[in-house]
Amino acid sequence: MSRKFYYTLHPRLCVIIGSGKVSENVINFMAATWITPISEDLPTVGFSCSKETYTCELIKKYKQFSVNIVKDVKLIWQVGTTSGKEINKVEKFKIKFKAGKVLDVPIIEDCLAYLECKVIKEVEVSECIFFIGEVKNWEAQNFDEYGFKNFWELPYHKAGRAFVFLSKNFVMI
Questions:
Q1: Taking CA 59 as the corner, what is the angle to CA 58 and CA 62, rounded to the nearest 5 degrees?
Q2: Which of 14, 112, 128, 157 sits 20 to 30 Å CA-CA off 75?
Q3: Distance (Å, whole) CA 67 – CA 70
């Protein structure tokens, strides 16, 4: 494996991005680690997406996406290493989903948390587009003022096929 500059920023929380429009039965999911909150006053998140992906195509078309936080690293790997242009990931990996409560985006059932996002800006950077989405609705399970109570269940992507999980240690300063 070649050394990559961005591995200095890993491990990173790994999420699944949902794209498409449920009412039109156009649904895709992809794994993403290059994601970040941007603003609190205008609740926004952004993530980097290759221009070549089906996810990019769907987000550009429908101007919306979901962020799904799941424990299942096998599902993360499956949706992250296959193309929605070539297979129907929902059928192939038996993904159970529902429509968002505010936006018509696909939400993975039984996820730890999800965000429904409306695209407000696209920034083109080389081979990627950085989508900025306003969070229109979000829900999380087992969550308090410090975030996830069981934070050690969240999957972090280290590199390639390697994922890590945090220990249960929690330090207050």
A1: 80
A2: 128
A3: 10
Residues with Cβ < 8 Å from 173, sequence gap 6 or more? Answer: none
d(CA 126, CA 169): 39
**Closest listed residue to residue 105, CA positions, set 118, 95, 92:** 118
Instruction: Find tokens 């599902």 and name the residue.
Output: 75
Contacts of 128 (CB under 8 A, 6+ apart): 48, 49, 50, 51
Structure tokens at 144: 């308090």
CA distance 108 to 19: 11
Structure tokens at 42: 């205008």
Question: pLDDT at position 137, please?
Answer: 98
Domains of the chain: 5-164 (2.30.110.10)
Q: How confident is the model at residue 2 (pLDDT cuts 50, 70, 90)?
A: low
